[in-house]
Specification:
By secondary structure, the protein is an all-alpha fold. The protein has a domain of about 210 residues: Fumarate Reductase Cytochrome B subunit, CATH 1.20.950. Helices cover about 60% and strands about 0% of the residues. It contains 15 helices and 2 strands. A two-stranded antiparallel ribbon has the order 1-2. Helix 7 crosses helix 9. The longest helix has about 40 residues. The radius of gyration is 32 Å and the shape is elongated. The N and C termini lie far apart (about 120 Å). The N terminus is likely disordered.
Amino acid sequence: MLRAFLSILLCLGLATALSAQDVAPDSAPRASTGGAQTLQDIMARQRGEPVDDSFRRAATGNPGHAADIAAQLGTLGGASDAEVFRALRYGTADVTVTSRGPAAGVLIQDGGMWWLAFRQGPLATYGAWLLGGTLALLALFYLLRGKIRIEGEKTGRTITRFSGFERFGHWLFAGSFLVLGATGLISLFGRTVLIPLFGHQGFSTLAVASKWVHNNIAWAFMAGLVIVILNWTLHNIPNRHDLIWLSKAGGLFSKGVHPPARKFNAGQKMIFWGCVVLGLSISVSGLSLLFPFELPMFAKTFTVLNDLGAPGWVGMAPLPEQLAAQEEMQFAQIWHAMVAFAFMAMIFAHIYLGSIGMEGAFDAMGSGEVDLQWAREHHGLWVQEVGTKQAAAGTAPPAE
């Protein structure tokens, strides 16, 4: 009898609970957790879905609930320690600081955790694999192909490949990029790689110096980029000869194959436009990092992308359009580093072909003069153009 009675009560209780849940499922979604996040919140966050955390953001205490100052608990105020730290975390606390900087009142930057996790995880991991993989492929190519030699007999005569101003712009751009790449890698990998070698104090000195060099050499990089663009844009406009060059892979994989090319072949044009696009992008994000409160770039970019519906193309929710200065810097730093990795991988290939990969190539940017036979094999159409101009000017063309 007792067992039957308890069974009836249990069924009635379950029915009542289910009925209440069906009638008002959202009336008190966190009543069972005391206002904390639910299992559904946790699972949604693990799946990468957006979670409404307004129930936490708003739980920052109420000064009106504080006891009278003369009462026993009157000095404790109307907010617990957890509520105070929550208000600091979400930027709603009334903070007074002596510094007048735009972000000085931000004591806890909650959004920084995703940036730190991405920077230490995927960014560093995939970036290292990209650079290491590029170097490994270049080493393999060198073992299989060897150095690309001048196949004809050298003439002993030279032709001016690049003027002094062209070489100045190239080396200003290239030299500053190498310094920026090295100091940037120190910033990203220094804690993992260099602290075990030099200790914390030694790395601290190196890190501070690297940051100063990185921030200031950036101006030389941007100046070199401008010179490169002014010098060579017209020479790097694609033409029909580039299709022939690409169809034969520039003769890089075959001996005795020399597709016609003007001053720059299709491969060099791809490097040039890569430098322009990546160089401009990394410069803009670098300026945003140097002047984060004057030159924010991502909030406006996200607004444009949302207007185009771009996030939906890849199944993403709309991007945030209101960003604090710290959030702008986090997005800018991530983008800056991603572009830098792609840039360095491309430049590795350029350095290889311009040095040990191809005989006579370094002379073009070294002295500016290249052997006439090298020029005929790699840039035959350009040699003809130079000869035509010299003949029209009454000077001696590069003859046999």
